[in-house]
Amino acid sequence: GVFSTLSDRLTTVLQGLRGKGRLSDADIDATAREIRVALLEADVALPVVRGFIAKVKERAKGAEVHQALNPAQQVVKIVNEELVNVLGGETRRLNLAKNPPSVIMLAGLQGAGKTTLAGKLARWLKGQGHTPLLVAADLQRPNAVTQLQVVGERAGVPVFAPEPGNGVGNPVEVSRRGIEEAKAKQHDIVLVDTAGRLGVDEEMMKQAIDIRAAVDPDEVLFVVDAMVGQDAINTATAFRDGVGFTGVVLTKLDGDARGGAALSVREVTGQPILFASNGEKLEDFDVFHPDRMASRILGMGDVLTLIEQAEQHFDQAQAEKAAAKLHTGQLTLEDFLEQMLAIRKMGPIANLLGMLPGAGQMKDQLGMLDEKHLDRIQAIIRGMTPAERDDPKIINGSRRLRIANGSGVKVSDVNDLVNRFFEARKMMASMAGRMGFGGGGGGKG
Ligand code: GDP
């Protein structure tokens, strides 16, 4: 899609931060510079990039250190939140009239994808239980009316087209009569497809303004091709200052051009993005969710979910206690079980692993990859007495057999867990020592 390159770049920049224990202002500046280049190369408008970078820097430098997040996660979180802001924050729903029919007018340049969008929107609205009527007021482009009739048929939505007596040749008249038709036939939403030109021109704008005045729409949706680059910004500004619009629809997000301009539309025009089109088929269409789009662009859907969950579920006191013990080599199986349960509350372990500092090594040591294995580990630890959890060395042969039988595993599994636990504890303690957490391999292990 149009954001793939940007997504790759941002992902790489942010991944570069992983594993850093602390971010200096210089680190943040360097990261901000890389993000800036990525955004500019993706065609995001300069003022938008400037504002974005300034906010990210300011927030990253002043960030309250949230104990649940490492510095890299902190920056990912900030970048994500600012991206959501640029894209409009909350999802903006369609405004519908209290007294139907609601009128939605589509405006934009020729080729932007208005007619296709009319079909998509009609199909989608019908799926939501509405009874839309499409009105063909694009009398400019040859075939536009026929094309609307074709998509209308595919969407299973009737089309009001100019015919003799319907206001042939006069798009304002066609629109007006279309609304009359909708009232007469009890359609609750009217979608008016209007004419575009290849570029912004006065006559087109005047026609759009006249149609708007005639139909008094509840929404005017500006349809913009995400592949056209910086020109999208100029076009959007011209439409805003001309006919005016209440919302934006991005089309051709499936394309391979750079789509950064589309990311700038909301910030530049101040109007929200309501829908996104990503293909030629009628189903290739969705409500635009700024948060989902941001996490898609960051290529970190899972990570962002994890960050949210970590913030919600994190028990700081418990984690600090465990960390302190870990660093001094005093971690017990009881602590380990507690931490494991806390982590598992957050979701499938495979998603979490990459994000946990030091998890790479722990994964190898403890073979923590699949959920079944985790279930087994939990069962084994639960089969131990508190004293045994505290100091697994005291578990003798017959106890190992009892624990194995009690938790439905083999004795070798119990041995494995105990041995790996010792190894891991030793390793973590020496790692902590090397990383300057103090402690080192002491403790009672
Ligand atoms: P209009 O002049 O604004 O009414 O634009 P059209 O609806 O005729 O669309 C122009 C061209 O873009 C057509 O070939 C459409 O099939 C194509 N198109 C529209 N929306 C999309 C989209 O989301 N993705 C892709 N790949 N093509 C699209």
From TrEMBL:
One of its GO terms (molecular function) is 7S RNA binding. GTP binds at residues 108-115, 193-197, 251-254. Residues 272-285 form the SRP54-type proteins GTP-binding domain. GO terms for biological process: SRP-dependent cotranslational protein targeting to membrane. It comes from the Bacteria. The keyword Ribonucleoprotein applies. GO terms for cellular component: signal recognition particle. It catalyses: GTP + H2O = GDP + phosphate + H(+). Transmembrane segments: none annotated. Its EC number is 3.6.5.4. Signal peptide: none annotated. Keywords: Cytoplasm, GTP-binding, Hydrolase, Nucleotide-binding, Ribonucleoprotein, RNA-binding, Signal recognition particle. It is found in: Cytoplasm. Belongs to the GTP-binding SRP family. SRP54 subfamily. Involved in targeting and insertion of nascent membrane proteins into the cytoplasmic membrane. Binds to the hydrophobic signal sequence of the ribosome-nascent chain (RNC) as it emerges from the ribosomes. The SRP-RNC complex is then targeted to the cytoplasmic membrane where it interacts with the SRP receptor FtsY. Part of the signal recognition particle protein translocation system, which is composed of SRP and FtsY. Composed of three domains: the N-terminal N domain, which is responsible for interactions with the ribosome, the central G domain, which binds GTP, and the C-terminal M domain, which binds the RNA and the signal sequence of the RNC. This is Signal recognition particle protein. It comes from Lentzea jiangxiensis.
